[in-house]
């Protein structure tokens, strides 16, 4: 009887500890540490500033005005995924979400792309806060929503800006 109880206690302890380790891995995989490069998001985000972004799957839960991390296009309008393997930080962009599917195309983007109407299904528009220093939807067009990989919570960049 004593051996059986000890085995159950050890097994239960292993499950709890294993669950904690898995939870740690899950939390780590659900967050991205992103270092800002360039002036395109100034003054909200400065070069060298580090923000923690939460991974997303599609546009659910995202709103216009959110700062997002997206996969950088290889060339304007060419949204191929990078080669298999982890996506490096150099292949990411930080931009502000300006429009989601069904929203009106922002005027600056409409002029730059020669389009009008609403953002198509499965697409989004992103813009840099510092338009003079930003390469964004005005240059590479609509962003497929599956290329939006993370969301930077407002408190993450507001707290970092105060430092």
Name some characteristics of this structure.
single chain; 163 residues; alpha+beta; 7-stranded antiparallel beta sheet; 4 helices; globular; disordered N terminus
Describe it.
This protein has 163 residues and is an alpha+beta fold. It is 29% helix and 22% strand. A 7-stranded antiparallel β-sheet has the order 1-2-7-3-4-5-6. It starts with a helix and ends with a helix.
What's this model, at a glance?
The protein is an alpha+beta fold and 163 residues long. The chain has helices spanning 2-29, 107-113, 137-140, 154-162, and strands at residues 31-35, 50-55, 67-71, 92-99, 123-127, 143-144, 148-152. The chain has a seven-stranded antiparallel β-sheet.
Q: How would you classify the helix and strand content by structural class?
A: alpha+beta
Give the helices and strands as they follow along the chain. HEEEEHEHEEH
On the 0 to 100 scale, the average pLDDT is: 77
Q: Could you say which overall geometry the principal axes of the C-alpha atoms support?
A: globular
Count of extended strands: 7
Uncertain segments of ≥5 residues (pLDDT<50)?
1-28
Between the first and last Cα atoms, what is the distance in angstroms? 59 Å
Portion of residues in beta strands equals: 15-25%
Strand order in the largest sheet: 1-2-7-3-4-5-6
Oligomer: single chain
Please describe the biggest sheet, giving its number of strands, its sense, and whether it closes into a barrel: 7 strands, antiparallel
How many helix segments?
4
Q: Rg from C-alpha positions?
A: 21 Å
What percentage of residues falls in helices of 4 or more residues?
25-40%
């Amino acid at each position: 009887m004593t051996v059986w109880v000890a085995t159950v206690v050890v097994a239960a302890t292993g499950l709890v500890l294993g669950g904690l380790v898995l939870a740690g891995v899950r939390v780590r995989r659900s967050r991205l540490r992103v270092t800002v490069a360039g002036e395109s998001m100034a003054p909200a985000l400065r070069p060298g500033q580090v923000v923690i972004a939460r991974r997303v799957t599609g546009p659910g839960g995202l709103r216009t005005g959110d700062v997002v991390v997206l996969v950088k296009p290889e060339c304007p309008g060419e949204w191929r995924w990078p080669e298999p393997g982890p996506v490096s930080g150099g292949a990411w962009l930080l931009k502000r979400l300006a429009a989601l599917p069904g929203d009106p195309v922002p005027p600056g983007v409409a002029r730059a792309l020669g389009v009008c109407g609403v953002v198509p299904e499965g697409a989004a528009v992103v813009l840099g806060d510092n338009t003079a220093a930003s390469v964004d939807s005005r240059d590479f067009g609509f962003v497929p929503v599956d290329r939006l990989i993370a969301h930077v919570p407002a408190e993450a960049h507001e707290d970092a800006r105060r430092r």
